[in-house]
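Please go through the protein record below and see whether the fold suits the sequence. Record follows.
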Amino acid sequence: MEVQIFGVRKSADTRAALRFFAERRIRTHFVDLNERAASVGELRRFATKFGAQALIDLEGKRFAELGLKSAQLSEERWLERLSVEPLLLRMPLVRHQQQLTVGPAEESWRAWVAATRTPA
């Protein structure tokens, strides 16, 4: 099993996700959004399942700094904005094969681990 985690090291939720998988000896591929922003295509995968609004951290400091509270953007424009401003994202974004989560989702992660550990 291998998971891909998008986030920043300063995010407590991202660190919790990394710790969750490390404690279970699951290999992770961590993408630090401060070093390499997520592409629009990567973000679209999450937006298709949850919607672009679910990816936005409405309570985040960066959201307030940019004054986006009254912004009326299309899904595509939001995805472009999120790829340029990764600190607007709810973190972490976690992907295992075709399964996705946005934000802390320990129950889902536990289900993934259980599904891979049970013999088929």
Summary: The mean pLDDT is 90. The longest helix spans residues 12-23. The chain has one domain: 2-117.
